[in-house]
Design a protein that fits this description.
With about 250 residues, the chain is α+β, with helices and mostly antiparallel strands. The chain contains 3 helices and 11 strands. Helix 1 runs antiparallel to helix 3.
């Protein structure tokens, strides 16, 4: 078999790997909340998974908006090394009556700001953890997010996802309460892990392990395909060499 044939077969492997991995990574590269569901009336530990999609800038600020029509009365954040956090409590546009009485104030926003050099680098992600409650007794709660980059660009994850409709370009994270989450929802981290999380880095480690396992399985499959291609090329080369030349 010619050396050039082997080189071409080997060269296709990294290209195939890139194409195979790019699709699932691109599909999940948006800010979302895990777990995606929580029971009404309880306090829930929620993690906002924020990847940096820019190839040249870092994420330096993340703002999560909480609803004012169905407010969370209490939200606390888990400290994150290199970041400062602020919980904003505001007077609601309209008082809300619940089983505990009339609510006139509620948490409307949590803002995380990175210190110098602590932003989320390109190709990386960070988990931002809060404890929020009581979870309102509704079908679902949209939690829009504003992501700011070091170059000044801003991405707003605030688009609603209609039922049975393709996901928009910048969907708002959704916490499902009485309504079941979509069957194909990308949890990223299991509800059990998120609820029991005591350290954001532990959650990141678990996600990285799962991603690494997926890469390994995908690489083995693509490697097997490349081996079959090389063997077929080798067999054809041997057959060609076995045919004697015809002299005139």
């Amino acid at each position: 078999m010619k050396k050039s044939t082997i080189v071409r077969a080997a060269a296709t492997l990294p290209v195939a790997v890139g194409l195979a991995l790019a699709a699932p990574l691109a599909a999940s590269a948006h800010v979302h909340v895990v777990p995606e569901s929580a029971p009404a009336g309880d306090y829930a530990t929620l993690q906002f998974k924020a990847p940096t999609e820019s190839a040249t800038a870092s994420t330096v600020k993340l703002e999560v908006d909480f609803p004012t029509d169905h407010p969370f009365t209490s939200v606390s954040y888990q400290p994150l090394v290199g970041w400062t956090a602020e919980v904003v409590t505001s007077t609601l546009p309209k008082p809300v009556t619940t089983s505990d009485g009339t609510i006139t104030k509620g948490v409307t926003k949590v803002v995380w700001t990175a210190s110098e050099g602590a932003g989320i680098k390109p190709g990386a992600f960070q988990l931002f953890t809060v404890s929020a409650g009581a979870v309102p007794d509704v079908d679902k709660v949209e939690l829009p997010v504003i992501q700011t980059y070091s170059d000044g660009s801003v991405v707003k994850w605030n688009e609603a996802t209609p039922a049975s409709v393709e996901e928009p370009e910048h969907p708002a994270p959704v916490l499902y309460v009485n309504e079941a989450p979509p069957a194909d929802a990308d949890q990223g981290i299991s509800a059990t892990t998120a609820a029991a999380a005591t350290d954001a880095s532990a959650g990141a480690s678990g996600t990285s392990s799962a991603l690494g396992l997926g890469f390994g399985i995908g690489g083995l499959g693509l490697g097997a395909i490349a081996l079959v291609v090389a063997l077929l090329a080798y067999t054809r080369g041997r057959r060609s060499a076995a045919v004697p030349a015809v002299k005139e």
